[in-house]
Amino acid sequence: MGKPDGSREIIMRRLGLACVAALLCATTLTAISGTTSTAASSTPVAFPSKPKGLKAPVTLPKDVDPASAYVPQVACQPGTPRGVALTRDLVMRTYGVGGAGNTARSCTEGVSEHADGRAWDWMVDVTKPSERAAAADFLAWLTKDGGTNARRLGVMYVIYNEKIWAIYRAKEGWRPSSGHRDHVHVSFSWNGARGTTSFWTGKVHPVDYGPCARYSGQPGVVNGQARTTPCPALTALVRKTSRSTEELGSRASTVRSAQTALGVKVTGTLDTTTRSALARYQKAHDLPPTATLDQPTWSSLVPASTTWDAAGSMTSGEAARYGAKNYPTTLGPWATGKSVLVLQVALAVPRADRNGYLGPRTVAAVKARQQALGRPVTGRWSKADWAALAAAS
To answer: Residue ranges of the ARB-07466-like C-terminal domain (predicted)?
Structure first.
């Protein structure tokens, strides 16, 4: 299983303290007779001085893709995106050794980007000369010249033979890691995963920020399209439950009750059938489409599990007056947070759809109430709409 850096570095990076000066810094690589030393802080195996590398299928532009920042997995959306498949297939054709390995896995196996489909394991064993040589050639080509080819392919980091190299820390070279003696782990940026890089298209594309989470501490929404704007600020949960968040592959005891509520076969494992049912349920109840048993979904699916609600016990009239007093900003589609939850209560939206997420069902309720109030039917809820609703209530 691939995973970035060491566990300590993952924790520090998640706390916003990445690149700690005293943590696993590497020295400059030194070429000797066409190879480099394999001592600590050097390459994972001896590299050739003139690696063959991969041949791009297009004419490469003068400009080079920006180096990817570290983009951890946020969504559970396993699969094999186009760019990952293209890279895997080209590597296998170029070198013809080792095994194609795997890309996507269950979403319960750590922060290796496999759950996003953005990671690939090339099975080349360091103890087998032909496989070790192929890995050395690919890695030497990928990381040379400051990682130009990694940028063109959209590679974030690679791990092999207990060493890691990352484009976002390229100046540090190869640093100590763990495991990965029988395979090269490759993690991609979203541009790299989707194949929207200069290596495949002949031009540099805008940065793809990938899926975004809507609530703090919750999985991101499943998203198959490029996102060229940064994610919006995370919103605090508007409901909390006694259940923990569960993703594809989970065998938590609570999965069985979720399967019963969803009307699918009770297996005790959050399998692909359950995941698909979750996606359908979320679409039907104005929930962020995460295809996971996250907090908003638990609160809707199993209301008895709810332990806290930001709207408290407000009636629809109380919610209307509260909104008119406290929320002057217009709410549009996909708005998230307490203001949306209060609006859903004020509009008497069914309880299962009161999730603080302004999805299609809530938009429909907004339009219906705007029409009933004699207000412009826009699907966006304004300060004037709050005032009209409060007066009517």
So the answer is: 83-181
